[in-house]
């Protein structure tokens, strides 16, 4: 519906608008600046002749010039000290979570996955005598300092249920 309406306005009075545009006076272009160089050459045929004349003396100079170009010798790169040291990270298998295929299978040593982090924080919260910082560091191949920081600053959520009597008081 909108296309038909716009087409009506677009084609309204087309012939009169076209005639009006055609009958307008065309703007005159700005005058060109006469270039002195072209005017001089056009008026003097001997200059034109000098330009196109062949100069044998210059040709002999050109023939005497000989340019020899050679590529630098290609150096074969040996496996020496040019390569950056490639650090092979040791990987360890993760303690698999509940998601199966979506879980991360291998983690570099010194790092843990999110599932493992939540698991170890929960284990430490529930049984801190068994899951000490030293045991967690050995179990997950972490540094003791990092494990202590992790246990100090990250605390898993605790779900608390209030009895029905206290709900009314709140």
From TrEMBL:
Question: What Gene Ontology terms for biological process does this UniProt record contain?
Answer: mitochondrial respiratory chain complex I assembly
Q: Which InterPro entries match?
A: NDUFAF4
Q: Which domain of life is it from?
A: Eukaryota
* Region (Disordered), start-end ranges: 19-43
Q: Hey, what's the signal peptide range on this chain?
A: none
Which Pfam families does this entry report, sorted A to Z?
UPF0240
Cite a GO CC annotation. mitochondrion
Complexes and interactors: Binds calmodulin. Interacts with NDUFAF3.
For this chain, the family text in UniProt reads: Belongs to the NDUFAF4 family.
**Name this polypeptide is given:** NADH dehydrogenase [ubiquinone] 1 alpha subcomplex assembly factor 4
**From which organism does this entry originate?**
Eudyptes filholi
Q: Which gene encodes it?
A: NDUFAF4
């Amino acid at each position: 519906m909108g296309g038909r309406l716009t087409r009506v306005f677009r084609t309204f009075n087309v012939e009169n608008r076209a005639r009006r545009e055609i009958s307008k006076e065309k703007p005159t272009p700005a005058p060109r600046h006469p270039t002195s160089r072209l005017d001089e050459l056009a008026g003097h045929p001997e200059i034109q002749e000098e330009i196109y004349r062949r100069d044998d003396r210059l040709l002999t100079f050109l023939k005497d010039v000989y340019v020899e170009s050679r590529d630098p010798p290609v150096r074969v790169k040996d496996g020496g000290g040019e390569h950056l040291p490639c650090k092979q990270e040791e990987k360890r298998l993760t303690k698999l979570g509940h998601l199966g295929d979506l879980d991360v299978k291998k983690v570099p040593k010194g790092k843990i996955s999110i599932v493992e982090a939540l698991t170890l924080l929960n284990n430490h919260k529930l049984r801190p005598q068994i899951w000490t910082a030293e045991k967690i560091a050995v179990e997950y191949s972490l540094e003791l300092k990092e494990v202590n920081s992790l246990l100090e600053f990250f605390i898993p959520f605790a779900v608390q249920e209030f009895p029905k009597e206290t709900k009314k008081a709140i």
